[in-house]
Structure formats: C-alpha cells, structure tokens
From TrEMBL, chains A, B:
GO terms for molecular function: transaminase activity. In the C-terminal section; belongs to the class-I pyridoxal-phosphate-dependent aminotransferase family. This is PLP-dependent aminotransferase family protein. Residues 4-72 form the HTH gntR-type domain. Keywords: Aminotransferase, DNA-binding, Pyridoxal phosphate, Transcription, Transcription regulation, Transferase. It comes from Pseudomonas izuensis. CDD domains: AAT_like, WHTH_GntR.
C-alpha cells in the first residue's frame, strides 16, 4: 500500500513532468478545475497539489491568469529540488556573532518603533491578573522562599499543562513534564539529551535565529531544509536528506505558526514527518511556542499527537502567550525523560516556584481561555492592518505571508533589495526590523524582513512603515 | 629565589626524611617547640608544618602524647603522596546514577530528621523581609512582567554584588557579572566556556557531589586531587598532576568553607594555587557559594583576589546564605566573559527580574550585614552542639572536622564502617544523612558521613544522633 498522500503522489507526477521537460518554463499549468476532472480529486486536493508545487518553487500564480511553470531554482525561495549544500562546522560558526551584532546595534540605538519583537505589546497581556496572582501566592504560601524547587518543577503547573495539551489532542503525562527557564532551556536540554558535539541536526530554512544560536553554542553541525509559508518543512527535501550519506541525529521543527514563516503544517504532513523521522532514527524536536496563538475553529494537532514511538521531544513556552517577563517553558521528552531530568538538574536545578504557582492559578480558570481568544482576534486585526500598509508602502513585487495567527509577518522584497542595508538605515531613525539574513546561515534570505505585529495599529506605526517603504524606493 | 613558603620547604624536608626511612613509622615526631628552635621559625610556621604532614597522611596526633609518623597510605584520608589513579571516562560515568539513587531513596522515605541538607533551617533565613521586599517590588514595578530580562541580569543586583565583593578584596566589575540560575548554572557555564567534552577537569577529593554530576553531564573526564580539612587542596599533589602527561583544562576549587571538608585555604596557598594554574594554562574555577558564612574577624580573600591574568572564573550563589527558594547565582568570568554571556543567552536567556530586584533592595541595606553576622554566630553554636553530640554518641575513633563557619561537618568513622549501610539503615527510621561515597568517584570515602548542622540543636536532633551512634555500635 502506498502511504504517500494522494496530493503528493500527484505533485510528484507533475514534478517528474517538469524535470523531464514535458512541462516547460513559462507554460501554463492545468487549472484547478481541469485537475479535479482529470484525476477525479476534490477541490482541496487539487489546491494542495498546486501549493506543493509552489512550495517547490516550480509554479507561480499570476493574478487573474492562473498558474505557470517557473524556473525551479529561483533564489527568491529556498532552493527547492536541490538541497542546500551541507554547511561544515567552520562555516557555521558565526551565526551567533552575526545575530548578536544585529542585537547589539539595536541595543545601542534609541528605538522609537520596534518591528523586531515577536512579543505582543504589554497592554495585550493579562499583567494585572498575573500580578494579583503573584501577590496572592506570595502572601499565602510561606514556604515559597524557604524550599528549593524540585528539578521537574511544581506539580500544580505540570498538571495544568498536561490538561491543556488535550486541546491539541496531545497526550502529556504531568509526571514526565519538566518545567524549564523558557523554551530556550527546553530546546537546549532536548539537544543535549540526544546529540553530542559534532553531530548533525537539521532545521527548517529559514528558522528562528535563536535556534541557530543554540545549535552553534552546542557545537552542532546544522543542515537547513527548505520550508514554505504554506505547509512548513518540505518533506520531499527532508526525505532526500535523510536518505543521504549524512546521519541526521535530530530535527527541530516549529509545526504550528512557524517563526518566521507563519506556516501551519497540514495534519497529513505532520503524520508523515513523525513517521519519516522515526523510520530514520532521527529525533524530532517540536517547538510549540506559538501554538496557542493560532486562530482556528478546529483544534490543531501537534507533532507529538502523531508520535507512536514515544521518541519525539515536545517543547513549549508561556513567554509569548502569557507575559515576556515570565520565563517558563516546558519539555515533555518521552523516552528521553530521565536523561532530560538529569540534565536539567545539573544545568540549573528547579525553577523558582512563585511564577509557576501564580501562573497555574490563572491558567486553571476559564478566564485564561477567554483571554487567549481575545488575544488571537486582536492579533489578527493587527496583522491585517500591518500587511495592508506594507503592501501599500513597500516596492512593487513585495509579498507578505498571511499566517493564521501570531505576531509575525515574513516579507519578501524583490530580490535586488538588501534587508541588512534596510536594517541599518532604519535603525538610524529609530525603527527596528529583523533582517532575513539572521534566520539562516545559507545566505538565501538577504531580501526578506520579519515584521512583528505585536502592537495595536497606530499612526506612528503607519508612519514608520511608510518610512521603510520610502527608504526602499529611494535609489541607493 | 625560592617562592615556596618556608613551612612547605620544611614539610618537604620531613617528607623526604620519611620516604627515605630516616624517620620511621611509629616514631615520635619532633615537638612544636623543638621545631621552632631547630629551624628558627615561628609557632604558626611550626604548626603549619605539622598540619601539612597531617594532610599528607604521614603524621598523626595522639592526644597528650604528641605527633607520630604513620603509614602514609592509610585509606582513612585521601591518598597523600600517590595521586589517585586517573579515572577513565567510562569508569566515571555513573556518579550521577549513584547520587540520584541516594537522592531518590531519600525522596521516597518519610524524613523526620534531615542531616543531608546543606541549607539552614527556614527560621534562620530572613524570609519575612524578603517576602516584604518582593511584595513591594511587585507592586511598585509594573514592567517586571512585561519585559524580558536582559541576558546578564539586572544591573541593580550586579552593582551590589560588585560592591559587596570588595569585603573579600575581590574586584568584580558589575558590567562583567552575569546573573545565573544558582551556582549550578554558573559552574555549568564556566565549564562550557573553557572545555569540550572529553577534556579533563580536576576537582578536590572529596568534593560536593553536585559538581561531579555537572562534570559527568558535560562528558568531562575528572581527576580528583586530595584535599584536607585544614588547608583544602593539596598543592604538591596538584603540581605533580599538572606536570604529568594529562592536559588539565580546568580545576574547580571551593577555597572558603569547602563542601564537605569545611576547609579554608590559607592566603599563601590561594596565591600559589592561582599562580600554579596560570603557569599551566589551567583555568581555575572558583566556587564561592559558602564564603559569606565564614566566621572570621579578618576578612578572607578569594582566589579571584590573587588572579593577575583575568583568567580565573568566579562563581557564587545566594542560595545558601539568603534563601533556598531564591535561585540566584552569579559568574564573573574575566577574559571569558563574552563567551559566558553567549552561552547564558543560548542556554536560558536572562533570569526573571522580580527576585533580583527584591534581593537587591535588601542586600543594599546595613541590616543584611547584621543578618549575616547573626547567622554565622548561630551556625557556630549549632556546629558545636552537633560536634559534641557526635563525639559523645559515635564509636571511638570517629573524628569530626571543626570548620570556621557554615552548616557542614565531615565525619570520619573508623574505617571498618560503611556510611552507605548507615544511610540505608537510618533512612528506615526517617533519619537522612549524606554518605561519603557520593563525594568522590575514587571509593575513598566509604566510611565518611557529611552531617548538616543547619537546624537549631534540639532533643529531636540529639535523639537522632544517638540513634545513629547506636546503629554504628550494634554488631552487624
């Protein structure tokens, strides 16, 4: 039995036709309607086929005209069929320096408008409630300060996290959750548990620069797998990589609301990804930091939901959804739990109990769910306003992602632009952006910008986006 | 010019005499008075010579009779002249398992009297003041929860730590201090900054088991250097090791109130140790967690004070002196600062601000110094009571250290006893002790017990010590 989903079988069929020259560059691609008839498939399958081919970079949609075959290796997207060349460790060392030079330049400047933050504006967080909960917890529990916290964290919080995970069909056992200092420590522990320095780890390309910094600090070799805003990591490219000569010890994936792509992997892809990794003995590390920010009527699944071998490591954090000042993440490491617990113990012992208890008291109430719903709605509005303004002010040929949640837009400028040049110019007038370069070591995103939409839309933000647009349009 | 201190030159002179057989086992050693005359040295130098020889295990003091030459390699002390055999990585792996099996057995039991804790009893800590400071900070500072803390920690706390360090003649620069999740994370970062897996790191033998666990978790090879309750690490043994074939990348030393020995290194030894390590390009990592608990009229120096090359890494913590529930440590890494900052950023980002600010508010007042003075006095009383009771109840031949501060006594039972057997037997009746085995991987401390004196002396404690004594005396 062929377990490859139908849409992917058909996408492969078209890929072969393009590779062999049966379908040529510039040629019009069969319409959705035609494909539905020809292959007797549903509308959604036909759409999925086109998206898949778009992700591979072989198809381009022209407004009011249809889909056309295009050169597959356009540098405007992650190289689709050819894998990125494996980077050697020496070449890799340096992303931290690049990232921190960007961060340090930002710290030296006086920032008026910050588009580089992935956080929401302070007023969107339930800070008063949290503060009240903390005050109450602090007054009520006299043993908070006189007892050292347990390595795995407070059981009250672990219970709530396990219960909440059910909303994403994720089965976590409270006793096997370890509370960490943010998702950063969680990912760190996951990597330390399953790799040794010099091992190779794969990530999505682009991906959150913080992950690249962690990998560099642990002396891990990194391979970047192309990913798209539509469906996340490119599974064909990943499969090719896993079949290749290099042993991939682990793969870090942000399946729901990828940073910076905003992608949400379809369920079929999630299932296939978990299966692929299990089959190649590659430990899948899931970063679910943004999952709670997805705006959807149907609950999403996590990768963990599809894990049948208890070998996936699930990491998440409250840092983005609840409050930037609360450094609480967690890790559920399946069969690696004992090793992760040992590493947590020797790395930093247990986290302080106060914020764990205060947060538990809040997350256990229905008002937490209400807060999340409100937050998601607000963010959707903010993303829409920002996206419209970017399209209004930025040069023709700019494209903006349309994620189903979160605070981030991934903006592709026409490829002659340099986002690093824009970063430096904008900084001079107090506008902070995240240049695409820091999201990969493969130098493929030099004309991308990540724009944070955490703040309510305002004349000041509008003005700042207009300024960015003017900077781009001015001949340099 | 011979830079070896006079007392050590003379100790070496006697060691040669013992080795060559000029002085024989069982023979009486020259009296202090005789040595003063013979070598024209002061009383303190003569005493120092005897202590040095005691530390090497070649001299034993018999009450009311004087000092006698003894077999140098008695297993009752760290092997003195012969170095511990280098342990290979495979042999080493396992200390964590041993330690955690001890810790887990403790957690399963119902503990009535806990002698295994290095903390003070809750009522000795200024918990009310801390709680009040936290409540005030939380009410006053609305941005605590809405801003992510900076990687290096809050500058208010770093300023106070730098200012307080002056009391131990230690020059720290606030801007180059990084606040950590306890000393555990500080040591972790120090080791990650200067070693790679497979490197060799030296430690004192015995030493705090937590350090051994950290080393194991980082896949570091460990060499143990004999240390004594009088003067800490044996510098001759260390020198031999540094001159040996194995490259020692780093050395972790607890110079003031060693855990478990209670030793305080004399200034001359501190200076020499720093010089030795600098000369062999071995990074010295100083753990000063217990320094504030030393009861002394003259301020102590740290190793950092003697560092002329900015290559020593200083680590400390408020966890034992201020409150077990406050997980704040710090690291001042000298020339390794940038690397440590990077590792802290990628390991766990900045620590939460609340406890940093609350603690700063307290540590900046004179009442903090008053609290420390009171705490030291109380602990001295508690140690005295405990020590007397141990000598009253434990078998003849038991010896107890007499540290100048802190909460810990290191108890040497006659060598036919097994502290691990005692641990298990005591646990059955709810008494918790730390068996000597977990403080080394060299199986030299199986008849030692670490006893915590953090709690005020009471009939219950007296009774528990009596029970331990009876267990030991009962024929097994």
């Amino acid at each position: 039995m062929n377990t490859t989903p139908l849409y992917r079988q058909l996408a492969n069929h078209y890929l072969d036709a393009i590779r062999s020259g049966t379908l040529k560059t510039g040629e019009r691609f069969p319409s959705i309607r035609l494909m539905m008839e020809k292959h007797a498939v549903s509308l959604s399958t036909a759409v999925q086929i086109c998206r898949e081919l778009e992700d591979y970079g072989v198809l381009e949609a022209r407004p009011r005209s249809g889909n056309y075959i295009r050169q597959p290796d356009t540098p405007a997207r992650p190289a689709p069929l050819a894998l990125p060349p494996p980077l050697d460790a020496e070449a890799y060392v340096g992303i931290h320096q690049q990232v921190s030079s960007v961060l340090k330049a930002s710290q030296r400047a006086t920032i008026k408008v910050n588009f580089a933050s992935a956080y929401c504006a302070p007023q969107l967080y339930p800070l008063k409630t949290l503060q009240d909960n903390m005050l109450r917890t602090l007054r009520q529990d006299p043993h908070l300060l006189d007892t050292a916290g347990s390595t795995c964290g407070h059981i009250a919080l672990r219970n709530i996290l396990a219960r909440r995970a059910l909303t994403t069909k994720t089965h976590l056992t409270a006793e096997r959750i370890v509370i960490t200092n943010g998702a950063t420590e969680a990912i760190n522990l996951a990597l330390r548990a399953v790799t040794r320095p010099g091992d190779t780890v794969a990530v999505e390309s682009p991906t959150f620069y913080g992950l690249l910094q962690i990998l560099e600090s642990l002396n891990l070799r990194v391979l970047e797998v192309p990913a798209s805003p539509h469906s996340g990591i490119n599974l064909l490219a990943l499969e090719q990589l896993l079949l290749g000569p290099e042993r991939i010890k682990a793969l870090i994936v942000i399946p729901n609301l990828h940073n910076p792509l905003g992608s949400i992997m379809p369920d079929a892809n999630k299932a296939r990804l978990v299966q692929l990794c299990a089959g190649h003995d590659t430990v899948l590390i899931e970063d679910d930091t943004y999952g709670d920010l997805v705006e959807t009527e149907h609950p999403l699944s996590t990768l963990k939901h599809w894990d049948r071998t208890d070998s996936l490591i699930y990491c998440a954090s409250l840092n983005k959804t609840l409050a930037p000042g609360v450094r609480l993440g967690w890790i559920s490491a399946g069969k690696w739990h004992e090793r992760v617990e040992m590493l947590k113990h020797t790395q930093s012992h247990g986290c302080e109990a106060l914020s764990q208890l205060a947060v538990s008291a809040y997350m256990g109430t229905p008002s937490y769910e209400r807060y999340l719903r409100r937050l998601r709605k607000t963010l959707t509005l903010q993303r829409q306003h920002m996206s419209e303004a970017i399209q209004r002010y930025f040069p023709q040929g700019t494209s903006v992602t349309n994620p189903r949640g979160g605070t981030l837009l991934w903006v592709e400028l026409p490829r002659e632009y340099s986002s690093m040049a824009l970063f430096h110019e904008a900084l001079k007038v107090g506008i902070l952006i995240s240049p695409g370069d820091i999201f990969s070591n493969a130098r493929r995103f030099g004309h991308f910008v990540r724009i944070g939409c955490g703040a309510p839309y305002s004349p000041r933000i509008d003005e700042a986006l207009r300024t960015l647009g003017q900077m781009l349009k001015r001949p340099s």
